[in-house]
Amino acid sequence: MNVRFAGLLLVMTIFPCVAQAADVSCKTAECHTSIGGTQNMHEPVKEGDCSGCHKQTNPLHPLKGAKSFAMTAQGAALCYQCHDAFGKKKVLHPPVKDGECAYCHKPHGGVGPFLLEGGDDQTALCMGCHDAAPFKQKVKHGPVAVGACTKCHNPHESNEKALLRGPVWESCLKCHADFLKSLKGAAFIHPPVKDGPCTSCHNPHGSAVPQLLKKKMPDVCLECHPGLAKKLTAKVPHKPLQDEGGCGNCHSTHFSKSKGLLAGEEKDVCLGCHDTDKLGKPPLRNIKKEIEGKKFLHGPIEMGECKACHSPHGSDYFRLLNKSYPADLYAPYKEGLYDLCLECHEKNLLKFAETTIYTNFRNGKRNLHFVHVVDKRKGRTCRVCHEAHASSGEKLISKEGVQFGEWKIPLNFKITPTGGSCAPGCHRAFKYDRDKPETYGAETK
Amino acid sequence: MKIIRFAKLRKSIGVSLFGMAFASCLAGCAGKAAPPGTVFFPPPPNKPKVQFLTSIADSTDVEGKQGGFSLVVTGKEGEQSIRSISKAYGVAVSKGKIYVCDTSGGQLVIIDPVNKKFDYLKGNYGDGKLKKPVNVALDDDGNIYVVDTMRKEVLVYDSMGNYLKSFGKELEKAKPVDIVAYKNRLYLLDIFQGDIKVLDRRTGRLLTTIGKDEGSSKGLRMPVNFTIDKAGFMYVTNAGNGKVIKLDLDGHILGSFGKLGDGFGDFTRPKGVAVDDTGLIYVADGGHQNVQLFSFVDNKSRLLMFFGDPGLPVGSMNLPAGIAVSKDNLAYFQKFAAPDFELEQVIYVINQYGPAKLAIYGLGKMKGDTTEMVAPTSADKSK
């Protein structure tokens, strides 16, 4: 038996004046004094007509030790005498299903609308039955925070799971209308956003992490993108993935105009952080400054594809590089060591001491790339002569010179139709010619 | 044990292919009935990738029995002259014409299938007389270079077939057996010296020698045939070690595949080699009596299929030697293909014996077949 109804009957027993005729109010100075007096009274109560719900079963009223009034119907049938009946939809709120309307409603009147006791904040009412833990998280959904449970849920019945007022996606977008507007213009949409449900990533009530995510980033992302887990535990991590913003530091997680759901064009996203001399300890290079105003850009940068060389989620190689490239200034060539560069550039560039095919940097057939890089004692890495990102010099040859401790080694490199010359800080000036090879003296090396 | 096992397997596959030929007549292939006599490789239930199309042994196979005749050789009018291929070795295709070196006939046969012409080389007399032509190459200007192992020379003819000059006698202790014209160079394969002579295309002057085995086990061993692909890499078949060796134009050995044996991908007498414009490598083997088809990417070879093994009513090879692959004449040879079998390459194989002196096959696939000859590698997928 419903506790509230039991109380009501008890009240009726104690205050027998309720048994008076309909045209005589049951509520008097002495009887049924607790009835009414609330902000929102049940309409019959407001009109003083108790007979719609109560009927006298014994002419004696009040009747000590016995009841002289009974309900005009039992359970929900009592309410359905005036209100439309529920039960036509797939999902019913259990009290509705049990016909126990008074679980939630105060039959005579409540502080809040709909004969509810708790006013606009329905938290206490709902938590009377539901587990409160998910609603006490650090981050609360707005409606949860103000106890507006019925903003998303229909408290009586629904065709949707969890008594939602509509499908998840529609339920969310009823409020998040601005999101819908931006979504329509997006070129790339995250599949859970496109196909739903939003609850793939979000907990709609509350969460311990920002944005109501089910888990913190990147864990929530890895649930669908498990292939990235290995990258994220690689030797060299990308720092943004480790802070609170996680994946969202670079990706626009719902939709984007850019491929890979990036927050902007790839290069712009990267340079959004790599545009300062103060990033990291010791500071990373200011790539934006390195690129700006340069006549020659490295091909991938020209195409805005930093990831052609870098692995932004993590890498086992120096500087998040996709493949092997030496971290030191000197590293004699061996198979695999220069794979990063040779992935795009001629694979046989450094294999043969003599060639007429794989490089134009040769004196006759003598492969001068081989001379510089394959030197077993002091193989020079590409960076000794070339800038990786951009240069004012052709072939990305460094104009300013490579940083060598406190000195920048000048190269003074020049190109001719059949060869070229350089007069660097490394050795005396040399010329080279593919068609008419130069003869070098004792200082060849 | 391995040899016996593979030998048995080869035999069983040969039987399968034989059965396939008839099965294809009865049940068809890839869901659509192939006309009687259609020979596909590999056998069902695999999807067909190569079809035997036709063969040429003499001029009637090209011109028809009542076809036209040529004055080039006979000089006689009013009678049909049947010109034939006696025993050939090398073959080349250029601008739709097929050039066949008839070694025992001392002829260079020039076949124009589209225009139904079967001619002997015009300049094959006097100083330009061929004795034992084994291989032929054409340059971008249409000049014809024929390697003659009896004359130990390269004979040069213009695009009309007129004899121009010869060179190579001055090459000491050399026995050129194959030739490729590539850009402004001629590359001459020397079976005696085990190297490749690089000559100036216009003068015939020896510029350098490449590919010489410097005592390593990687070098050329009795190189018999070679080709240069469109990217400028050479592939040399070696009778001495059963390998196909890949070199660059400087002669650096970049890799190799194969070994002597009768397993899949092995060679017993590797001869002609060709590379199509997609990079697939075709190697004719006089011992296996077939052509094996390989991919060779990142220094890794993969045997994709083989075709022409003995035992078939038509389409089997008989001492295969030279091979050429071309997209020329695709439309012409499509009419020899089974309905719905779409040609992508035409493969020309010389049989030193048997009636099919020049056997012609088509690489392709049935309409709607989405499988690729080479499955993407993991590296491709990651890109």
UniProtKB/TrEMBL annotation, chain B:
Highest taxon listed in the record's lineage: Bacteria
SUPFAM superfamilies on file: NHL repeat (SSF101898)
NHL repeat copies, ranges: 126-160, 254-297
Signal peptide: 1-27
Molecular function in Gene Ontology: zinc ion binding
Cross-referenced Pfam families: NHL
Keywords (A to Z) from UniProt: Repeat, Signal
InterPro entries given in the database record: 6-blade_b-propeller_TolB-like, NHL_repeat, TRIM-NHL_E3_ligases
Transmembrane intervals: none
Gene3D superfamilies according to UniProt: TolB, C-terminal domain (2.120.10.30)
UniProt cross-references to PANTHER family, sorted A to Z: E3 UBIQUITIN-PROTEIN LIGASE NHLRC1-RELATED (PTHR24104), PROTEIN LIN-41 (PTHR24104:SF25)
Protein name: NHL repeat containing protein
Species: Oryzomonas japonica
Classification of source organism: Bacteria, Pseudomonadati, Thermodesulfobacteriota, Desulfuromonadia, Geobacterales
